[in-house]
Design goal:
Blueprint (H helix, E strand, L loop, with lengths): L3 E6 L3 E2 L1 H14 L3 E8 L1 E2 L1 H7 L3 E7 L10 H7 L1 E4 L7
Parallel strand pairs: 1-3, 2-4, 3-5
Antiparallel strand pairs: 5-6
Length: 90
């Protein structure tokens, strides 16, 4: 059996519906899926509390740079992913 990690990326805020959709994909893949990861700029605390033990929410950031006029190199150099350390996810 192959093992899969499902990743969904949202620009801006991930909604409850986005988490429900990813959870549906994880359930559909079944035992082959070892985890689902949601990457977004923002999450509601309520949604994380509901889905945080089933899916891993990762926040992306480009630091303090303005994305209005930015090069790919600047985006790449300032990109980061973080996880809410207050969650007991796994």
């Amino acid at each position: 059996m192959s093992r899969k990690i499902l990743v969904e990326v949202k620009t801006g805020r991930a909604s409850k519906g986005d988490f429900q959709q990813l959870k549906g994909y994880v359930d559909e893949v079944g035992k082959e899926c070892i985890i689902g990861i949601m990457i977004a700029k923002e999450f509601s605390r309520k949604t994380i509390e509901k889905y945080g033990n089933m899916l891993v929410p990762l926040r992306y950031s480009f630091g303090d740079i303005s994305l209005d006029h930015v090069t790919f190199e600047e985006m790449k150099n300032n990109f980061s992913l973080t996880i809410d350390k207050n969650l007991d996810l796994i």
